Amino acid sequence: MNASATFRRLVVLAALLGPVVAAAQTPPPPPAGDPSGGAPVGGAPGGGAPIFRFTGTSMANGESASRQGTGSEIPQRYARWEVTPTISLFGIPFGTHLMLSTEQDLTRQNINSLNMGFSLSAQQLQEQLKQRVFEQVESLMQNEDVAEVEGAISSIEGMTDPEALKDSVKKLVPAEAYDAYAKYKRLESLQDLDGDEILSRSRELDAFGLISGAEKFMLNFPTLGVGVNYPEYTQLSLSGVPVNGVNLEFTPGKFYLALTGGKTQSEVIYDTAGQAQEAFHRELYAGRIGFGRKTGAHFYATVMYAADDPNPLVVDEFNTLTPKSNYVVGFETRVPLIPNYWTVDAEVLGSMLTGDREAARIQNSDIPTFITELVDPTISSFVDYALKGNMTVAIPESGTRLQAEAVRIGPGFQSLGAPNLRTDLFRYEAKAEQGIWRRQITVAGSFKQETDNLIEWKSATTTITAYGLGLGLNFRGIPYLRLNYNPYTQRSELSNDSLRATSFGDSQRVENRTAMWSANAGYNYTVAEVSMNTNLSYSRQETRTRFGDGDNTANSVNLSQSFGFLFPLSLSASVGLNDQELMFGGASTITKTTTMEFSGSYTLFDVWQSTLGVSLAVQKETDDKTGFYLSTSFPVWVLGTMEIRAEKNIYKYTADPFAQQDYDEMIFRASLVSNW
What are the boundaries of each domain within the chain? Predict the structure, then answer.
């Protein structure tokens, strides 16, 4: 089945699902005389939540182009369908994410996500509770008793002692009015709660009748997922890897428990080049246990195990791929030395990675038998550790924020649960930010240094040092201004002390220095009832190498202007000037590029929005590119919102007419978004 046919079928399926689900969600008209007006009965207190509710979002989109992009892996034509359904039981939302794509390929890991499991949408549940609090606060704000108390407070506003103020107010207003005002203030304090704060104050929500018993219980599960999950323990242990299985967090009281298990990598046995297999089936299991909330004081122990299944793949002389296994054990803690102001975080982890599970076993009597039986080391196994410490000082009253961090990740430390983790480095950094004059002035500074080759196993050691200075001016009634300066140095030299002192060692030393300046100013204003925004930015980057080859200087200036009219028309325009000078072989090459873009948007009938735009980029005596685009979005009955976009791009490589790099392409994109 080709991509366009698949896309049409996906769009039709999404279109059919939308009205069906919407119709299913439409409540029947209330019977005559029903005082409830047809509102659901028996749901969560305070919110009137129904026993069962099915909601969600569906998006079908696709692209068709006259050519595949140069150097791009995105196919010339593709189609995708994503759907995020949510089932609410007694007001408790459970959601999932499903995806189908014509980009699915046997030679790669799965793109399609077809799991039908549901995960507890803790964030959505928290938003529901906050909405109920907001509605109660809005209702109480209209209460005459609350207004009466606020009037009494304003009449004695010179008093500063809280108890004396409280007694005086009680004498001025009836007890019922004061009680209503006290309830209003307690509810008001609950409006901005997030995450762990909602759970810690669930008793107050219960006292106001804003949370059901089932919701109160489910708040103990910040995460509860079955299917494809993306667990986040820490950046060093488990982060950024999909796990097709189970992922949950259970936090009753001060106790904390997290469990994760499932497949992280599919077996890939097909290869278009006829060579060996590309990936083993891999499973991962992890757990954390301890006490305390993640956002507050806590102490957790972490264990993770991941392993490849070598069967049925066969490793031979044509296949260098080997099945791996990995153990990670560690501890992580947070200590608020001064709650809400001064916090210290620390983490220590150890890992053992076996590069080849099929390699010969280690025969060493010095290693206890129970350890070899537990981790099954081979001659390809190695161990290492990682350390991380962080200190944060935040003083909201003065606008002060200080942060310091140190990280040491050994060259042998590996976590298959954190595939993007950089190893073999020691980094320490510090940041400071201070707001002045009601935070209309912001001053910031930073320092970072990073070194690799911790055990001198490489021939050279690289050290990176970076600084940062920033100034922000945001005075009312005048344009804002932001200035930044960021120098950066990279130095690499031989690790061997004797060689480093020789002329050969000096010739191998590398030192690159880069400095970046940037300035940005902007202003929102109105002229003759036309809303306008002007933004001007400038940036400069200088790179200097030790021997001069590769030195470059780049400057960029950009000006943008937008107009918003009382009628539904908006216009925008921007122009940019860029120049770059590159030194190589003693010769200098200068390139100058000019970019321009214009666009206009108009809305018909308050729902149909269309945008027309043109862009131009010209690099003198080298190349130029011109682009046109037209996009429109409009509602399609009860199906949702349709967006269609057409682009035409024309590229000409003027430096060499015979290089055959010119192209003239058309791109069409379409999407249909439905909500129910």
Answer: 127-217
